[in-house]
Every structure is written in structure tokens, then in C-alpha cells.
Amino acid sequence: MNAKRKILTAIGVTLTVLMLIITTVVALNFRSYGIESAKQKSSLTAELVRDALTSHMVNGWTEDQIQFYLVQISQTQNIRDLWLVRSQSVIDEMGPSMYNEVPRDDVDVQVLNTGERAEVLDESPQEASLRVTIPYVASAFGTPNCLQCHTASEGDVLGALSMVFNISDARNTGIITILPIAGASLLFLAIAILVTNHFIHPYLELFSSLQTSIGKASDGDFSGLVQTSLTDEGGEVAKRQNELYSKMQGTITDIDEKITTLLTQDSSLYNKNPLIRSKEIISELADIYKFKRTIEFDRSKHEVYNRIAYVIHDKLAIQHFAIYETSSERKTRALVHASDPGMWHSAAVDADINECRAYRTQTVIYSDDFNHVCDNCTQSSDAAYVCVPFSINKEVGLLIAIRPAEAGEVTRIRRVVPTILSYLDAAKPVIESQLLTALLTEQSRRDPLTGLYNRKYLEEYIDKALPQAMRAKTSLGVLMLDIDFFKMVNDTYGHDIGDVVIRGLTETMNECIREADIPIRFGGEEFIVLLYNSDENGAMMVGEKIREAFEKKVFTAGKERFSKTVSVGVSLFPEDASSFWKVIKSADLALYRAKESGRNQVVRFAESMAMQGADY
To answer: Identical fold at 18-172 and 298-444?
Structure first.
């Protein structure tokens, strides 16, 4: 039920109830008035009949004449019945009446016993009657003197006169009088409703327009204007409302357009209501901003990767996933985080990253796009997967591999993939910065000619890795190498050929040592090799292996071919000294002995060399 119908119904019901109350009150008043009038009339008639009968009895009327008189009176209009009742004392005195003047009912008996008049009102839907019974009380006072004719005492009841009056006419007159009042009330009710409708209709139209406008506004549409013909306060309300909505519509549209430009995904994925959409976008942007502010202070890219994993697992409720760092130069991928490392192995992709469809196409791959869309990800016929590639720079990228718990979850993940990309996009400059920092740090530790670690790295290694080796009680073999007569190469063939010889020794060392061993360019033509977990025999064997392999290398300078040799000094940590720098010095002394002894040989450090060398 709308407001207009409610208001008119309320007014109609109120006025109808009021009309019924007034009509009822008037009807009751007319009824009471009619009954009272009938009572007064009947009482007066009864008194007149009683007095007339008394006079006729005094004048010597016979019983037949009195009965005739009573019949004549009973035929008067509105008198339905009339009868006389003798008391027992009168019957005893004068004998019974030939017209059965005995009590007819309890009312007659009551009046004879009490000497008080009685009135009985009898109403039905068809008619109304009033029964009046008046006693004849013996009295010596007044005229006539009852005690002159009757043997009775003062106050004795000699008889009673009962009359029944038809008062339907009085009631009908009241009803006829009430009908115009009811008609007038109905007319007033109709006029009141029409007048009320005329005045409230514009306001109800205003409310209806407000309701429509507010309904649109709740959905984010503030273009709905309030329509009204009112020029009073209602019109002012509509005017202010329209001005407010116009400003809000422009502001919301402007905010929505500007916020949307900050997204990396389609804004249609958010709520259609621009207010709710703006709230969702601002909330997401705030989360991304806090995420970005946090990772800016992380010390390494691995901390950033862990925070990305937290977002995927905790914020986006993805349980099974892995994060890979991809390298386009090496064509490899490195697992940096996995919820279950065992389920992410793929020999083909591990061998060649281009076997990954997502990496190769740089598009998000969904298992429900096509049957067996990526064979390397399909482990069973009903396997579900989502792979999200993301490029950090030309060399490094990320790959998010997701395993939904069931195929139906792919649809949900499809909706959150844009959010993942937003977080990755926020992390991109931070990861790039950390990659660049790591690259610069690595370059500062590397020799640009050979690609080997330099002396700076050796200093850092001694400060960080050596204490760990000491705690693990791990021995290190130290080889100090120097190319024999290297200066002659530079003087004879030039520095470019000298660089070739240095790179040749670098290749030889890399071929002869293990992956755990570390070759270092110590300076010029001098090199150090750190042999992890090596004893004397192992260190000597590696030194000989390098010496023999380098001796066999042939270098070309124009049309001339030549070979070079290398001398090697060997020492052990912590066997030869408790200080690693002293161990390096020991290897240097052993190298010096190898040079003195004819070069192209491997010499193990001995204590006698320390006694002969300078104080170290």
C-alpha cells in the first residue's frame, strides 16, 4: 500500500469512526428522549384513566360500564392493552370481578405488594412497547376519600391499572431524524477525502519522486532529479536535493574516472555501484600501497617474494601455489616459494623455461580455456591449474603457478588474478631495484676480464663464510697461482694477448675444480683457488691438474703460437695457521719457493719457508 492510499485510508477510517460515534450518540439521545417522552405520556395517560375510573366508580357506574370505558380507552392510538387488577382485600370485600381483574404477571403482583409503580420497556427489531402499572393506594386525604367506600387502612393497595403503550413511532421518528445526519456525515467524509487528496497529492508526488531519486542514489546513480510542482518548503527541499545530487554525480564520476586509471585491471570486475566500486578500489589501492611501503624496506628480493606469497595465501585464499623466478638469459626457472614443493616438478620446464606455455606466450593460462591447454601442467585428466607470468625486466620475470583444489575454483581464481597482477606491478620497481643492487654488488665482487671473484669478495668471504667453516671444523685448501714470465707476454705480444692468456688460465681453473671450489683473481696474473673441505693430497692433486692442463694450452699471437706455464703454492687452513690471511701468506711463500726452484711446479708450504721469509 502506497503512502497516498495509507493517508486517505487513515483519514477516511478516522472520519468514519467519528461519524459513527456522533450518529450513535445522537441515536442514543433520540432513543432516550423518545422513551422518556413515552414514559411521561404513558404516566399521564395512566393517571388520567385512574382518576376517571375513580370518578365513574364514585358516580355509581356499573362494572359493565367501567369495562366498556376501559375498552374505549384501549382503542386509543398507541395504547396496545389496558386492564384492571383488584387486590385480594377488595376481592374479599366486593367479590371477584366478572372480567377477570386478577394479576396477569409478576409485575402486577409486585405493584400490589409494594404499592409502587412499575415500568417495563420491551424492544425488538420490529417494535418497541412500554408497560406501565400504577397502584391504587387507599387514602383518607384528598378527593375522593377511599376509606369511605372501602374497608381499608391508610396506605393499603386496593388495586392497580396496567397499560401497554406502543412507542415504535417515537423510535422510528428518531431513526428518520438520524438519517439526514448520517447522510450529511457521509457527504462531509467524501468532501474531506477529496480536499485532503487535493492538498496532499503534490506532497505525495514529491515523496514518490524522492523515493525514486534516493533509490537510484543507493545504487550510485545521482542523475535522478526530484520532480515537484510545489513552490513552498517542499519545492525548496526538491531544489536543494537536486543541487546536492548534481554535485555528487559530478564528484563521483570524476573520482571513479581518476581511480580507474590507477588500476591494472578492468574496472568492470568490481561492483557496478560507483560508490561501492570506489570503496573497493580505494581499499585495494590502500592495501597495495601498504604492501609497497613495506617491501621498500625489505633487504632482499626473497623477502619480497615471501610477502607476495603471504598476499596470495592469506589475502586471496589460494592454498596451493608456487612462485618461480625466471631467467631469459639462462632459460631457466628457480623455485623461490612453494606451498608443496613436491607437486611442482616438471623436468621439461626445468630443462628449458620455453617449455612453459605461460612464459612463452606471456599470457595467463587457465586449465578450463581448452582441454590439455598445457601438457607440462596436466598431471591428470581432471587437473586444474592457473599460470600467471609477469615480467620484471628483460632478463628476470616471475611465474605464479596455482593448483586449485577443484576445477570449479578456477572461476574464482580467474577473478583474483588481476589483483595478483596489481601486487606484482607494485612490487616490480622494488624487485628491479634489488636486482640492480645485487648486480652492482656482484659486479663489484667480480673481475670484469675473467668473470672471477676479486679480492673484495675474498675479504667478504673471510669475514662471513670463514667463521662458518671454523664452526663446522671444515678444512680449506688454498692455491696461490702465478703465470710464469707473464710480463714477457705483454711486452712481446701486447696486453690484449696477455688478457687472452689470463682468460686461458681462468678456463683451465674452472675445468679442473669442483663447483663448490672458488677461483679468485687476486691481482694481475696472480690467482687464488679456495678448495672446500680439502686435505693436503687433494690440494696438491688439484694444483698439479691445473698446472698440467695449462701447460698444454696453446695460444696464438698473429702467426706465432706459444704456451705458458704456471707456478702454484699450496697451504691449508687451519693446519698451517689460525689466521686465514696468514694461510694466504703461506701459500704466497710456497709460490715464491716454486718460482725460485725453476717455476712450472706445485710447492707445499713448509715451516722452514716461514723462517726464511719476511715477518708476517
So the answer is: yes
Contact call for residues 274 and 256 (beta carbons, < 8 A): yes
Level-2 CATH architecture, domain 298-444: 2-Layer Sandwich (3.30)
Residue with cell 601438457: 375
pTM attached to this predicted model: 0.54
pLDDT tens profile 234-267: 677 777 877 777 777 777 777 766 666 666 555 5
Catalytic residue among 525, 551, 596, 607: 525
Give yes or no: 205 in active site: no
Instruction: Say if residues 146 and 140 touch (Cβ distance below 8 Å).
Output: yes
529: left (phi over 0), alpha (psi -120 to 50) or beta: beta
Domain 18-172 has CATH 3.30.450: yes
Residues 6+ away with beta carbon under 8 Å from 559? none
Q: Tell me, what's the pLDDT at 614?
A: 45
The per-residue pLDDT for 77 is 67
Superfamily covering domain 455-612: Reverse transcriptase/Diguanylate cyclase domain (3.30.70.270)
Distance CA 469, CA 569 (A): 22
Bridge partners of residue 323, in order along the sequence: 337, 400
Per-domain residue ranges for the chain? 18-172, 298-444, 455-612
Strand intervals (E) in 179-282: none
Q: Phi/psi at 612 (nearest 5 deg)? A: -85, -20
- The whole-number pLDDT of residue 126 equals 76
Q: Which helix (H) or strand (E) holds 24?
A: helix 3-58
DSSP state of 226: P
